[in-house]
Amino acid sequence: MSLEFCTALFGYSSIHIPLLGGYSLSFQTSLSTGPHFIERGFSSVTELGGLQRYCSHLSPFYCRTMARERDSSANFFHQKEGFAQVARWIALDPDKETSIYRKFDELAARNLLYLQSELLVLENELDQLDRSDAKSDDMNLADAIMTWETLERQYNTGSEKARVRMDLIVKIRAKLKEYHEALLLQSEIAKLKQPSKRTLDTYREWFNNPQPALGGLSKTFLDDPDDLVGLHSLETDYLSNFLRRYWPFKEEISLDDRYSIGRYHEKSISAATAIITILIAALLLVGPITGLYFVANNAAKLGMLAAFTALFALSVGLITNAKRAEVFASTAAYAAVLVVFVSGNISNSTTLPAT
């Protein structure tokens, strides 16, 4: 091991220590920031004085270069590569948003078409066999078309015609099972949603920085968003998406050999969404009732009723995943409550005093 002393720019003095395996260490000192420790050959910087990490921002998440984990009992510079690296990054996602894979829609459709064509051929063979046996003078063959016991008995006695029919039936049964299973699996896959643009952009940013984590054809598997599927999709209402985009409490909660992503726990978003929803619901109930109570003008009351009803419908549509029918039903129920309150006040205000 040799030491190389040099003077860096901007007032840094540097000690360069070459190590085995092509790695090197540098100690830098500065009057303003104190000592720094840099692992050459790695994208990680750690300030010893403040134990802070250099941070670069990636939209929509911010991404921090990571100081490599050190284990005295293991290889000091050990890092996972390739498939192991990508698998680790996916596994460390607490909300499993990064479980994104190709669904191969075109291949799946082609496979179903192949199976369908095979069954069409087998169906045609069975139809031809039925017509041939029905015209045969052999009564046993004609009976085998209608009676399973006869077909089975002829098969067990070594009848060539019965063997051909039985083999065809077994082949159709196996192929039909394979076809139906493929249909059901494809129907389930079709229900899975595409990953959000926010998650996909972050995945691509990590995957391709500084170079693709996988080689060969695998390095392009994220290119076509229409053929990608997320195994775990989160709530997609406007409020949740807004909070995810501008959430101020992102923190580094997962480590990776290339980068550490500034993530947040989805439960924090869910809790914030629930609190905001409860507050809005309370305000939309207490606010109009209080306002309508103190307003004496009947026309103003009707105007307030219409405004609050529209605001309620807008809130339900924006902060929940309610379907159109559910929005109509909840808005009608909300309006009915306000109408009862307003009609009672109007009738009381217009009642003539008794003479």
Automatic annotation (TrEMBL):
Protein name per its UniProtKB record: DUF6594 domain-containing protein
Database matches in InterPro entries: DUF6594 (IPR046529)
Pfam families attached to this UniProt entry: DUF6594 (PF20237)
Residue ranges crossing the lipid bilayer per the database entry: 269-296, 302-320, 327-346
Keywords: Membrane, Transmembrane, Transmembrane helix
DUF6594 domain boundaries: 84-339
The keyword DNA repair is annotated on this UniProt entry: no
Highest taxon listed in the record's lineage: Eukaryota
